[in-house]
Design a protein that fits this description.
Number of domains: 5
Number of strands: 12
Distance between the termini: 80 Å
Strand order of the largest sheet: 6-7-12-11
Largest sheet: 4 strands, mixed
């Protein structure tokens, strides 16, 4: 191939490999970045020349090794010039007219000198920990190179090299445009002001092993996580991007890598010292594209659900409920969540078998997945919670379940004391009816609230359970009523899986591609709310006016 075509293969993957080559041969990420820049510059110069390249990758690595050899020789020559004689004297290598040392060590009386000192202090705060610590120890604490080497357990030449490199970094910053008296560089003028970031992050697994979301609540945390969304970043790059002293960035990186207890963090540190996200995180645009794949299928799903229920209405109504009355609307509210899950589950299975069969699923004790939320964006996703109790109101086992979405408020949540709630206990007792006269004055007050919230209804002098109730042994057969939808959904499932797979491969970074099911879960969140809205618009279902009613709540009882 022609040398002029060399630039066409300079993609992110190659740049990452070049950086890894450099990082393994240098003292720190700053030197690695410098060497990597030299290699890229050499390759760009080669691309501007005439000629042919027989084998492209051997040529690239040959250039890389040659540039590294020159880099090493220059480094050796600098060390020889800089580190001869007394350690303290060797540090004074920059001319007094513009040296960092002359300002740090001088008797500062002039306003300009004080101003330059402040600038130097600021630049020290932006150094990585290894450089920052030795600069503070040598110049501010007055320790000798020998003493500093003893404190950190390294050779004196290592300390001298860090001081030399740190001074050069600071000098480069001070020599930027806009360094006259009373002036600051563009970088120094940039305020530490974050554009507010909000996330919607879901989690699955065992939170007892540590929920990393708990240490990502501050804006600094969110900013750092966002910067590492797709591209690996060094602490220095993040510090410069946020215009924030390095010590704060390094601390935040440690927190987000550790997570809540060290078993899993939202960031992970790569072997080359850079940081990258450790979970699926989408931006608003990406999330919308994924959601739209499902949303546009909702009208068809709605039609199939209506046709299926109409065809099998007798089966739905003849299920052995224990209620005195059974209302089709309540039955639909009981099943609509399963109708949603069937569609999403079928898509997920197809993704696993046909599109990501060669991708190993992510294995973490607790897995996060989410997106950046922008003002005005509708937040999808409700909940489906269960509460379990034993020896409640004469029943050995009781399971209570409830659904909550935009149109429906929750009666209870997982982990709550649903079985101890007076309204729930009245619903359990009233399956076969309770005489109003048999209730105490306090129980009558609870009964009134239970009627208002849909647990009970009154017929004459009797109270009956309004939420659906079935026998414990029949409970597992409820979802089987919807099995026929599997075949009905098939054409839409196939089309959805194809589109979702393409978008996941486009937007989910390769290192977290094992969490493709979580990305699909995010995409599918609009289905439940949208399907409910569509069924209500078709007047096939109705919702309680205040969001709280018998809809979406039911019991399974065992004697």
């Amino acid at each position: 191939m022609k040398k002029s075509e060399l630039l066409k293969i300079m993609n992110q993957e190659l740049l990452d490999k070049l950086f890894g080559f450099c990082y393994a041969r240098t003292a720190d990420s700053h030197e690695a970045e410098e060497l990597c820049s030299d290699i890229i510059f050499a390759l760009v110069k080669s691309a501007q020349k005439e000629g042919e390249i027989e084998e492209i990758y051997p040529f690239i690595w040959r250039v890389a090794r040659n540039v590294y050899a020159d880099f090493s020789e220059k480094k050796r020559q600098r060390a020889e010039r800089s580190f001869a004689g007394n350690p303290e004297d060797e540090l004074l290598v920059i001319e007094a007219t513009d040296s960092v040392e002359s300002i740090l060590e001088a008797s500062l009386e002039e306003e300009e000198d004080m101003y330059q000192l402040k600038r130097i202090y600021r630049q020290i705060s932006f150094l990585t920990k290894a450089y920052r610590d030795v600069m503070v120890a040598f110049y501010l604490d007055g320790l000798s190179v020998k003493d500093i080497a003893a404190i950190y357990g390294v050779k004196e030449t290592t300390i001298k090299q860090r001081l030399f490199s740190a001074r050069n970094l600071i000098r480069q910053e001070l020599n930027e445009k806009g360094t006259g008296k009373g002036e600051m560089s563009d970088k120094e003028n940039k305020p530490v002001a974050f554009q507010k970031i909000d996330y919607v992050i879901w989690g699955t697994g065992m939170p007892t092993t540590g929920d990393p979301r708990n240490v990502c609540t501050r804006q600094l945390s969110k900013q750092v996580v966002w910067l590492c969304k797709n591209k690996p970043r060094t602490a220095k790059e993040i510090s410069e991007e946020l215009n924030l002293p390095m010590m704060y960035v390094e601390e935040e990186l440690d927190i987000q890598t550790w997570g809540e207890n060290g078993s899993y963090g939202l960031l992970k540190k790569l072997p080359d010292g850079r940081y990258i996200n450790n979970f699926v995180l989408l931006d608003t645009k990406e999330m919308k594209e994924l959601e739209d794949v499902y949303i546009k299928r909702v009208p068809t799903i709605c039609e199939k659900v209506i046709a299926y229920v109409e065809k099998n209405k007798e089966a739905y109504l003849s299920f052995p409920y224990l209620n005195q009355k059974v209302d089709l609307n309540l039955v639909l509210w009981q099943h609509v969540h399963t109708m949603d899950l069937i569609f999403n589950g079928l898509v997920e299975n197809l993704l696993e078998k046909e599109y990501f069969a060669d991708v190993e699923s992510g294995k973490r004790p607790f897995t996060c997945f989410g997106y950046r939320n922008e003002p005005g964006k509708r937040t999808w996703g409700g909940g489906f919670d269960q509460s379990y109790g034993e020896n409640i109101c004469g029943y050995s086992k009781v399971i209570a379940e409830n659904l909550y979405v935009t149109r429906l408020k929750a009666h209870f949540h997982c982990g709550g004391e649903a079985m101890l709630d007076a309204k729930m206990q009245l619903a359990i007792r009233a399956v076969k009816g309770i005489a109003v006269a048999s209730l105490s004055e306090e129980e009558q007050e609870h009964a009134a609230k239970a009627i208002a919230e849909g647990y009970l209804y009154r017929e004459g002098d009797m109270l009956y359970t309004k939420i659906l109730v079935c026998d414990f042994d029949d409970w597992m057969n409820l979802t089987k009523l919807n099995d026929g939808l599997i075949q009905e959904y098939k054409p839409e499932v196939e089309a959805t899986a194809a589109e979702i797979a393409a978008l996941i491969k486009k937007y989910v970074p390769e290192h977290v591609l094992g969490d493709y099911k979580r990305a699909n879960g995010l995409a599918a969140m609009p289905i439940l709310d949208s399907l409910i809205d569509a069924l209500i618009d078709k007047e096939f279902m109705t919702a309680p006016e205040n969001g709280v009613g018998a809809e979406g709540c039911w019991l399974a009882l065992k004697k």
